[in-house]
Amino acid sequence: MGGSVGEVARTAWGRSVVDASWRPVAMLRTPVTWLAVAQPPLAFGLGLFWFVALAAGLTLSLALSALWVGLLMLVAMMVLWRGGAMLERRLLRVTYGLRIADPYRPLPPGRGMSAKVRAMAADPATWKDLVYLGLMLPLAMAEIVVWVFLWGPVGLLVLSPVLVAGSHGMQYVVGPVAVYIRDPLSGLWATAVGLVLVLPALYATRAMAVAHTFWARTLLGATGSQQENAELRERAERLRASRARGVDAVEAERRRIERDLHDGAQQRLLSVAMDIGRARTKLDSDPEAARQLIEQAHAGAKEAIAELRDLARGIYPAILTDRGLDAALSGLAGRAAVPVEVTVELDERPPAAVESIAYFVVAEALTNVSKYARATSASVKVAREDRWVVVEIADDGVGGARSEPGGGLAGLADRAATIDGILTVDSPPGGPTVIRADLPCDW
Fold this sequence. Notes:
There is one protein chain. Helix 9 (224-282) packs across helix 14. A five-stranded mixed beta sheet has the order 3-4-5-7-6. The chain has helices spanning 24-29, 31-63, 68-96, 113-122, 124-134, 136-158, 160-165, 188-220, 224-282, 287-315, 318-323, 325-335, 352-373, 408-417; strands at residues 170-174, 177-181, 340-345, 378-385, 388-395, 422-426, 433-440. The protein starts with 23 loop residues before the first helix and ends with a strand. The protein is elongated and about 125 Å long. The protein is an alpha+beta fold.
């Protein structure tokens, strides 16, 4: 799913004008700051265009509304201003980093144009678009006045040596003080003053841009109910996808258990039965051979029991039910190929599903550490953060771990998704590797 309606997020240029850093150095280095400086002249040009286009188009359409030509022109104007609002949303994303999704109601299916036109006319977002474009010029005029007041003096001061070179001198008057610049060399102090004033001008422009974003989100964004509906639809879609992945994960687990039983314990038990049968036939004729067969069957039975115990542990370890997550993870750490430090900071036991997923995340991660990481140590940390249980596994190995379809990490992500959990893998080449699972305690 895309971003939620009215979302302010990272763009290709970095953070948005709202949530980017306000520190002086960061302000100077952030592209969105300078794009915000270029926005008022662009907005003024677009505002002038839309004022003329809407005034002329709507006036002519209403004047001819008694004829069918006027009605067609009104429809064309409505489509035009909706398209203009869509363009404005995308321009705001480029210049301000403001992501505003189109808040329009879905148009009726089919090719019937009259039904689509009625749906557009009944959509409140259509008329909010008209209000925004109609007020764009007055707002842009106010912004351009502030912009000229801020950047006009800065530009003149910074360019003073260049301007003086092509004239007989310049005079700056600030209140009762008048300063005359005769040549480019004497204009360097004005350039220095202009560069100092760049930062205050940036802060004022940035504040004006933030105010513009709130205005834009009010008219171009969704209403409160639309926002809530969009969030509910997004959550429903996410839940549907996570449940589907959970079903697939359970089916894959079932097939794994069947395969392990068939290839492992079942074959060993069959061998035990055959050995016991052969021993029965040799009890009278060859007691020593019978004894060896019985010992062989006994060893096979113990191996089958060990395999069944491992299989049961893979389904749901008994220690997790009896003693909780701390003891179960300590058991995993004890069987790991490298030293593992386990830290569990939970005031109370989380739900069984959370404990189970946390256990298997750690088990798979430690297995990967043993097989692929070439690590010398690892750590496991489990803590509660608000309504989340956070599981973090780190190792000092070679890195390069990735979540690939059909792989163990992808299976863990699917398992976590069944309860709306999130699994992230941070494993740059060369290490270290950090696997983090955020598991909600209520869903």
